[in-house]
Design brief:
2 domains; 10 helices; Rossmann fold; alpha/beta; globular; Alpha-Beta Plaits
Length: 392
């Protein structure tokens, strides 16, 4: 079956990378052999979801591949991006993660009660992390990127600015920053970073993101943070491979927090895979509690999105020591930056979910979702509002 998006754009480009789904009864590795014999270069198989990524193939072969025995779906292997918005304005007062933004969700009250999230595995699918950053000491990390695309650039783990900022916000250790104050994540969850986006360029293919999601499921994730997305799903949410993977994780007890997107203020601008009904989709608010102008909104097309909102404007947190994040403070050469975006709001909620999972490990994913939605009446700009510890 051709994804509807691909079916209408099959000959838009002479070459196109693909992501195929395989009948479990046929076997991934058998089909890999068939494709290789056709001269097609492959990415590593994704056994969790019975998928294979194909490096760019001639458009004329797409229907041939679709007709192969065992191929159940053929998708375009599209790109998603890290969701960062707006450079930091030097005349703005920073919203410190330790003293302000984390406590909008009342994380400090959870800590006082002994619920820190320390038993919870929180996976961050992003640009990777700087594992030597003091806020991320002890975090586990790996990469799902199979084909390097930053050749010639001086990049390494310390260049992982966006992913480091996200991970530090969700579960960074308490640390006295070089700028003269403490920073701290929302939780003390056990961080596991899986790189699926380029460290500097900040984009990743669907196959790499889905591979990272499969690894998180196989390695025992309880919470997954995805501060990434694209403006729309290919072929609609039901056909989209990322949204289908979100559903699979949720059905296996994983809480998936996903950025709503930075395409506001218009209605019906929720991105993919944040549009998944199985995701906990997060919009951004500023320090006055107002929804950020850039935060994607719901509407008739997305009647129950976003689910919640959290601080996402001028969030000061740890970042890669060697690279300034696009859209961040241009003076952030010491491993910290103030960044805005629904990317920054999402790890606040992921960290909050880790606190809840520590307290209520027996909850189902539906129970967790209803719990974080308990903040008030729904509206398409802020969802059910900001989740707060005192509500539960």
């Amino acid at each position: 079956m051709l994804n509807p998006y691909l079916e209408t754009r099959m000959f838009e480009f002479p070459l196109r990378p693909l992501l195929i789904e395989v009948d479990p009864n046929v076997g991934l590795y058998r089909l890999q052999g068939v494709l290789t014999s056709m001269g097609i270069a492959l990415r590593p198989a994704i056994p969790t979801f019975n998928m294979i990524g194909l490096l760019p193939v001639p458009a004329k072969l797409i229907e041939v591949i679709n007709a192969l025995p065992g191929v159940t779906a053929v998708h375009a292997d599209l790109q998603s991006n890290a969701l960062v918005e707006m450079p930091f304005a030097p005349n703005h007062e920073l919203w410190h993660t330790t003293s302000e933004s984390r406590n909008v969700l009342e994380a400090g009250e959870a800590f006082k009660a002994g619920w820190t999230g320390e038993t919870v595995r929180l996976f961050v699918i992003d640009t990777g992390i700087d594992p030597m950053h003091p806020q991320l000491e002890g975090a586990e990390w790996e990469s799902a990127i199979s084909i390097p695309r930053e050749a010639g650039l001086d990049v390494g783990p310390t260049s992982s600015g966006h992913g480091s900022h996200v991970a530090s916000t969700a579960a960074g250790k308490l640390h006295f920053a070089d700028v003269g104050f403490f920073v701290e994540g929302v939780s003390r969850a056990r961080i596991h970073s899986i790189q699926a986006l380029g460290r500097v360029i900040g984009t990743g293919f669907t196959s790499e993101i889905v591979d990272a999601m499969g690894r998180a499921l196989e390695k025992g994730a309880k919470v997954v943070n995805m501060s990434l997305g694209s403006k729309e799903c290919q072929g609609g949410c039901d056909a989209c491979p990322q949204c289908r993977a979100v559903r699979r994780l949720t059905e296996n007890g994983v809480l998936v927090a996903i950025a709503a997107g930075n395409s506001g203020p218009d209605a019906n601008t929720i991105g993919c895979p944040g549009c998944s009904p199985y995701a906990i989709t997060v919009g951004a608010i500023d320090r006055e509690g107002q929804v950020a102008s850039f935060s994607s909104r719901g509407g008739p097309k997305f009647p129950t999105k976003p689910d919640v909102v959290a601080p996402g404007v001028d969030i000061f947190s740890g970042t890669g020591r060697a690279t300034q994040v696009d859209g961040g403070d241009p003076q952030a050469g010491f491993g910290y930056a103030a960044i805005s975006g629904t990317s920054m709001a999402t790890p606040h909620v992921a960290g909050f979910l880790a606190l809840l999972a520590h307290r209520n490990p027996e909850f189902t994913t539906d129970q967790f979702k209803q719990t974080v939605r308990a903040g008030g009446a729904f509206n398409p700009s802020t969802g059910w509002g900001v989740p707060k510890w005192s509500m539960f």
